[in-house]
Structure formats: structure tokens, C-alpha cells
Amino acid sequence: MNTDLFSLQGRTALVTGASSGLGNHFARVLADAGARVVVGARRVERLESLVNDIQAAGGEAHAVAMDVTDGDSVTAAFESAEAVFGHVDVLVNNAGVADPKWFVDIDEASWDFMMDTNLKGVWRVARECCRRLIDAGKPGAVVNLSSVLGLGVQGMQSHYSASKAAVAHMTHAMASELWRYGIRVNALAPGYFKTEINADFFDSEKGQQYVKRIPPRRLGTLDELTGPLLLLASDASSYMSGVVLPVDGGHLWGSL
Questions:
Q1: Buried b (16+ CB within 10 A) or exposed e, 114-146
Q2: pLDDT tens string 62-121
Q3: Annotation says 239 is catalytic
Q4: Which of 160, 181, 192, 210 is catalytic?
Q5: Distance between CA 73 and CA 100 in Å, rounded?
Q6: Residue 116 to residue 47: CA distance in whole angstroms
Q7: Whole-structure pTM over 0.85, yes or no?
Q8: Which residue from 4, 55, 79, 241 lies 20 to 30 Å from 253 (Cα-Cα)?
Q9: In which element (H, E) is residue 188 found?
Q10: Sign of torsion, CA 193 194 199 204?
Q11: Per-residue pLDDT tens for 14-48?
Q12: What is the set of domains in the chain, with CATH numbers?
């Protein structure tokens, strides 16, 4: 087996929403695989700590302020990335928000906030990345972040589910258009992993009861996303595009 297939040596990767949670983990994984990593988020002070950690481990990293809901911010982040490391040829489109509400309690501001970040933000960043790759005549790999809630539904998550289902379907459409340019587009659809955004719930009695109802009777660990991410970001998936890959411990297929 050629394990070099999973190497990202010589690649430049950009991770959005890298200041915490999955994005922080993804940045470290890509750096460990040899990529020069650009980390983007609104909380730049957190990014600097992440950059320091990656550099201390022997990697290369650069922080950029990026608000995925602001087109000028996205453009400026790519300009900064290219000035330091050259073209971004691996994009992990991770930035997203959650806002649990019953369907009838969602107001237009909540709906717009969810869609502008989780869907339009993914489109905005991917478009910027892919336009630059096409203009430069370079191949690339885009990994969008969908969710198991983009493939199934759950109470109080209708607008989140809608945004993540749209990301999954946009991934299919992007893949069909962009392979001609050597750009592959796939998506991860994580189940439940404990991060700072959901830790309070999963530490509660109600959260513990919920975990007991999913097939593995536990949450996923961040390390269990490492292999799937490297698969989609690297040449190990050189004949894969348009795939939405659930990493959920079989949660989607648990008995009703």
C-alpha cells in the first residue's frame, strides 16, 4: 500500500472556522500531513495560538482574519494566503453556526443568519478558491462540511438541516462542473462530536440520555475524523468527487 497517497506535502490548505472545534483539529491534521496551512476565522487571537502550536510542531501556518459572510473579507484572506504560501489548492470549508429553535419560532433574522453562514458562506469561499485555481490552471480539492442533519432530520434543527442539506447538494453540483478543471469536491457529514459549541448539552443529563440512544452509545472523537478528512483532501481520493461522507457511528441508520 502506498501510504504517500495521504501526504499533503507541497500543498497549501485553507481551513475556515479554524479558531475552535473541528476547524482547529482539521488545521492540525493537515499540517501534520505536510501541508502549509492557512487558518481563517473572525477570532484572530485564537488563530495566533493555533499557528504557534503548528509551528512549534515543525509545521508551516499563517493566520488570516476571515468572516465568511463578508465577500471583501474572503477576498482579502485569499490575497494574504497567496502572498505567503501561494495558491490554496486544498480548501476545508468548515465555518458554520448552530441556532436550535422549533420551526415555528424561527424568525427571518435567524433564518438569514443560518443560511448566510452555513450555505452562502460555503459558496462564497469555494467560489473564490475555485476561480483562483482555474485562472492559475491548477488542480485542487475542496472539502465542504455538511452534517448528518443534512441527510436526516431532528427536532429544533429545521433551518440548520436545510442549510446542511443544501451544502450536500451544492457539493454534488460543484463536483459535476469542476472536475474538468482538475478540482474535486467532496463533503464530510459528521455526526456528534464534543466541541465547545455543544459541550454543555452533552455534559448534561439530557445530553447523556441522548448519547445512549445512538448506535455506538458514545460521541465520536476528533481523531475519528482524521482519516476521512485526509482521504478527501489528498490523492487517496483521486477518483472521488461529489461524495458526501457520513462519519457518525452509524447514527443515520440506527433503528427507529
A1: bebbbbbbbbbbbebbbebbeeeeeebbbbbbb
A2: 999 999 999 999 999 999 999 999 999 999 999 999 999 999 999 999 999 999 999 999
A3: no
A4: 160
A5: 27
A6: 23
A7: yes
A8: 241
A9: strand 183-190
A10: positive
A11: 999 999 999 999 999 999 999 999 999 999 999 99
A12: 3-245 (3.40.50.720)
